[in-house]
Amino acid sequence: MDRKKLVLLLGALVIAIGTAMAARSMFAGAAAPQVEAAAPVAQGPKVLVANRGLPVGTIITADAIGFQQWPEELVQDAYFIDGESDITKLLGTVVRFQVTAGEPVTQGSLVKPGDRGFLAAALGPGMRAVTVPVSAKTGVAGFVFPGDRVDLMLTQTVKGDGPALRASETILSNLRVLATDQSTTQEQVEGRTVVRAFRTVTLEVTPKIAEKVAVAQTIGTLSLSLRSIADSQSELERAIAAGDITVPDDATPEEEEALLRQAMSRPSDGAPTYVTGGDVSRFQRRSAPSQKGPAAPTAVANGPATFASTGPAPTARPAPVAPVGPVVNVTRGKQTTAVPVGK
């Protein structure tokens, strides 16, 4: 082989090997993983924050708050610091000012039982507090605690002609319990909830429902019926399906959650259910007895009311016919008579 051709062949081979090595190193460098900078870890104490949005009037429970690492330069004196604050002492307190999810809970945002304005802070906007008397029999034997939700039943006896009607009806539902007697928290001994009988229960209601409760106490006996926790969710789904609750399309997740929570906590006075004595025993009646009483009074102009007679109505005298045409008044003594004059 010609020497010149051999040199050219070796040169081409060297160039090919160099190109292959350069390409390999280039692709290997592109595939090498890039080390990302680690996110800075907040250095500072753990402060108490809200695990979810806490609107005004929320009763603090164990799952509503928790400790979270917080930058030391942002810690304020009003924060609850882990190791310095006992979270168990905050259970049962009420949110005075709204706290968003992840926001630190300050000492001024909570009001404790016994503090001035505690019950007013526990009420939601536009709500009222009413108290009803109960006993061990009508108060679920003491197994009702602040924060629970109950239905209110009215039991009454309707008297009249014949046997009386005994009936019970659920007049109100989904009422939040604010306090039992003068206690707004659950009493615990060695970590166990103490069940005690109480004589009064304070409920959160609307102004209209407060009026109904006041009237119901004068009619018959009021009893509590404890609601399941799952009832609120099922009723919320039913209300959404029926179109009673409308969530705006542009609502944020926080606004949507607040709207749904408000709908779930709203007391209801519609569609009451009832049971009569006839539904329980065949020897009881199912309908209200007829009412018999004195005849209704009839008003008389410029005089006292008189009772209508049950006999036949008296025959009224015909009114005198007024004469038509010219008349002459003829007076005899004290009586004057109009005498028509013929043409």
Keyword list:
22% helix; alpha+beta; 343 residues; 6 helices; 2 domains; two-stranded antiparallel ribbon; six-stranded antiparallel β-sheet; Type Iii Antifreeze Protein Isoform Hplc 12
Summarize the structure.
The chain is 22% helix and 25% strand. It has 343 residues and is α+β, with helices and mostly antiparallel strands.
Question: Could you outline the blueprint of secondary structure elements for this entry?
Answer:
Blueprint: H1 3-31, E1 46-50, E2 65-69, E3 94-95, E4 110-111, H2 118-122, E5 128-133, E6 149-160, E7 162-180, E8 188-189, E9 192-193, E10 200-205, H3 207-219, E11 221-226, H4 229-242, H5 253-264, E12 273-276, H6 277-280, E13 297-298, E14 306-307, E15 327-332, E16 335-340
Antiparallel strand pairs: 1-2, 3-4, 5-10, 6-7, 6-11, 7-10, 7-12, 8-9, 13-14, 15-16
